[in-house]
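Example 9 (inverse folding). The structure is encoded as follows.
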C-alpha cells in the first residue's frame, strides 16, 4: 500500500507531537520529584570542607615576613614558595611593627594546636610594650604595634586547624633592635627569652602546640 503525501505528513506530525508530549511529561515528573527531595539536602551551614594539601612551612615574623611573599621585593617567602612547590604550603604570618613581646601575645593564635586547649586565655600573661592608655575594645586586651594600628584588624584570620607543621621560621628582631626609648625596643635578654619561649611551644610536651618533628 502506497501512502499519499498528505497521510505521510500527518503521521510525521503526530509522531513529533507524541514525542514532545512524552518528553514534557517525563521532565515535569522528574523536576517535581527532585524539588520535593531538596529537604534532605544539607544546608551550607551543615557542611564541612576538607581541602587536600601538603605539609606546612609556617613563617612567623614582622614586616620582613609580611612582605616576604612579594616577588617584586625579592621576598624570602616568595623564593621558599617556589623552592618548595608541591612539597609544602608556605603560610605567611607576618605582622608589621611587631617585636617579640607583641608576638608573644598572639603566638597561641598563630601556631597550630596539636592538643586540646588547657589555657584559660590565649592572651594571658601578656604585658603591653606600648602605651595602655589608648582607647580600645572593652573585651580583653587590645594590642598596638609600633605603627599605632590595632590588632587584630578587620582582615585578621586564624584558621582553627592545620596540616603537619614541617618547618617553622621565627623571624623577629628588626623592631626589637630599635634604639632604647623607641616603641619597639627590647633588651637583648628579653628578646632571647621570648625566642626561647617560642621554640618551647613547639618542643615542650606540655605545650598545646607540641610538634617534636618540626
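The amino acid assigned to each position is listed next.
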Amino acid at each position: 500500500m502506497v501512502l499519499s503525501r498528505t497521510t505521510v505528513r500527518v503521521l510525521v506530525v503526530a509522531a513529533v507531537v507524541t514525542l514532545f508530549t512524552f518528553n514534557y511529561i517525563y521532565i515535569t515528573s522528574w523536576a517535581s520529584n527532585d524539588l520535593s527531595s531538596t529537604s534532605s539536602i544539607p544546608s551550607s551551614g551543615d557542611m564541612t570542607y576538607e581541602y587536600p594539601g601538603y605539609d606546612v612551612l609556617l613563617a612567623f615574623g614582622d614586616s620582613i615576613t609580611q612582605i616576604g611573599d612579594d616577588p617584586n621585593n625579592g621576598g624570602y617567602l616568595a623564593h621558599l614558595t617556589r623552592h618548595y612547590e608541591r612539597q609544602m604550603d608556605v603560610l605567611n604570618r607576618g605582622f608589621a611593627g611587631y617585636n617579640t613581646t607583641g608576638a608573644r601575645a598572639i603566638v597561641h593564635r598563630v601556631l597550630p594546636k596539636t592538643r586540646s586547649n588547657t589555657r584559660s586565655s590565649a592572651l594571658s600573661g601578656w604585658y603591653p610594650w606600648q602605651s595602655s592608655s589608648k582607647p580600645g575594645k572593652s573585651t580583653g586586651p587590645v594590642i598596638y604595634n609600633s605603627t599605632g594600628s590595632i590588632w587584630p584588624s578587620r582582615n585578621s584570620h586564624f584558621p582553627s586547624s592545620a596540616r603537619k607543621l614541617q618547618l617553622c621560621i621565627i623571624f623577629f628582631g628588626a623592631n626589637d633592635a630599635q634604639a632604647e626609648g623607641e616603641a619597639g625596643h627590647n633588651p637583648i635578654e628579653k628578646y632571647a627569652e621570648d625566642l626561647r619561649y617560642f621554640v618551647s611551644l613547639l618542643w615542650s610536651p606540655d605545650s598545646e602546640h607540641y610538634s617534636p618533628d618540626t
